[in-house]
């Protein structure tokens, strides 16, 4: 029996929600594949993917089926007990990656929190409390908890919340010499996003990641890859480290892992995992049966040659057309990224105006993203249909024409 719901509109946000977001003027209410409909019934094409989350688009039958089946069985038992979906998911991730152990949580921030705590605990146990320093990169993003926001290299997110966690330094991204100068025997971990996401979709150089791996080995430090945005097929490999051929000690995953259902994972080796002994770390909801059932279904679909090869093919389709549009309208200097994480760098004339592009696209029935004020970001479903790509990019071109002629 359905209960009549009170009507709500965008204005309600400003009355009842904490004002830490500035959501768009429309409210999406339904999605199917790469199409979304708002309250008025208007249809939009989704190239935002819930910020690289909706890896299989909206209402994918495999995910709906997995969630529905599990919802009728078991939702939550806590970590006093284990559960079948969590064990199946851990097996899948271990079988498919460098990892031998998995820890499940609810978000990318929690996955990184676990990774950073593990790194410090390993160093503490093996070398003593002096070895606790973490090196991250300028403009990195690792989450919104106090620890992860301190590790993230964007002061605008960490300033104004009291004393920061100490023992954290930041070096320029893709600058091996800077890392070499900063790392020491007090360093417990180096944290890198294989592609910097929030700061503008900036891919790492292969030599940079290889060099970071060598420096970590030399100084007995752990290499952590934050793959929250790059993981689970986004680059055309299951995880971006595979694309680069550089293996981390610890990897964090979230976003795409649940295809829209909240879940995070920290992956690592058996030798490191044993330092998180019983009671050292935990989470109430982490590894719950609902999230793990959905994530199992995500991996079953994504980790196939067809889907991963499709991501690489779709990248070329997006890139060619976006470069063409960028050139024609004087909008972009560069289209960069790997797989279906693509950043279009705005020209000097449009610097700082990514929000204007976002708004113009929305008026044409297209959802895109920003990555900072100077980059327009695309992170669509990995199985977005070619017809939707064509139609979406037609809409984007109309937006570009409207914007540049205004």
From TrEMBL:
The keyword Transferase applies. Binds 1 pyridoxal phosphate per subunit. Its EC number is 2.6.1.11. One of its GO terms (cellular component) is cytoplasm. InterPro entries: Ac/SucOrn_transaminase_bac, AcOrn/SuccOrn_fam, Aminotrans_3, Aminotrans_3_PPA_site, Class-III_PLP-dep_AT, PyrdxlP-dep_Trfase, PyrdxlP-dep_Trfase_major, PyrdxlP-dep_Trfase_small. Homodimer. This is Acetylornithine aminotransferase.
């Amino acid at each position: 029996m359905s209960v009549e719901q009170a009507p709500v509109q965008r204005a309600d946000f400003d009355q009842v929600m904490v004002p830490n977001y500035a959501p768009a003027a429309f409210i999406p209410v339904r999605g199917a594949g790469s199409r979304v409909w708002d309250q008025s019934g208007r249809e939009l094409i989704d190239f935002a993917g819930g910020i690289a989350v909706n890896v299989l688009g909206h209402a994918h039958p495999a995910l709906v089926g997995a969630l529905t089946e599990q919802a009728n069985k078991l939702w939550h038992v806590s970590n006093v007990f284990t559960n079948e979906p969590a064990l199946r998911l851990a097996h899948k991730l271990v079988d498919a990656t460098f990892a031998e152990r998995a820890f499940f949580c609810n978000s990318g921030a929690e996955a990184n929190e676990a990774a950073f705590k593990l790194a410090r605990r390993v160093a503490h146990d093996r070398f003593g409390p002096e070895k606790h320093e973490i090196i991250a990169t300028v403009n990195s993003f690792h989450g919104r908890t106090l620890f992860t926001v301190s590790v993230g290299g964007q002061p605008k997110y960490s300033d104004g919340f009291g004393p920061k966690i100490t023992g954290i330094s930041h070096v320029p991204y893709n600058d091996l010499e800077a890392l070499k100068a900063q790392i020491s025997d007090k360093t417990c971990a180096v944290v890198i996003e294989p592609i910097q996401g929030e700061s503008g979709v900036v891919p790492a150089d292969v030599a940079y990641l290889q060099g970071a791996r060598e420096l970590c080995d030399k100084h007995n430090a752990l290499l952590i890859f934050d793959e929250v945005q790059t993981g689970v097929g986004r680059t055309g490999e299951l995880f971006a480290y595979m694309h680069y051929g550089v293996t981390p000690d610890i990897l964090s995953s979230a976003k795409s892992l649940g295809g829209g259902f909240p879940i995070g994972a920290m992956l690592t080796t058996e030798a490191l995992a044993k330092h998180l002994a019983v009671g050292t770390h935990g989470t109430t909801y982490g590894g719950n049966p609902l999230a793990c059932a959905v994530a199992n279904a995500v991996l079953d679909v994504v980790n196939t040659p067809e889907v991963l090869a499709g991501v690489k093919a779709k990248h070329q389709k997006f890139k060619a057309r976006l470069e063409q549009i960028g050139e024609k309208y004087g909008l972009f200097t560069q289209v960069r990224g790997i797989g279906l994480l693509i950043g279009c760098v705005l020209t000097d004339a449009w610097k700082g105006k990514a929000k204007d592009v976002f708004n113009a696209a929305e008026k044409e029935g297209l959802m895109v993203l920003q990555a900072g004020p100077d980059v327009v970001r695309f992170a669509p479903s990995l199985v977005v249909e070619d017809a939707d790509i064509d139609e979406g990019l037609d809409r984007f071109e109309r937006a570009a024409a409207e914007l540049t002629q205004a």
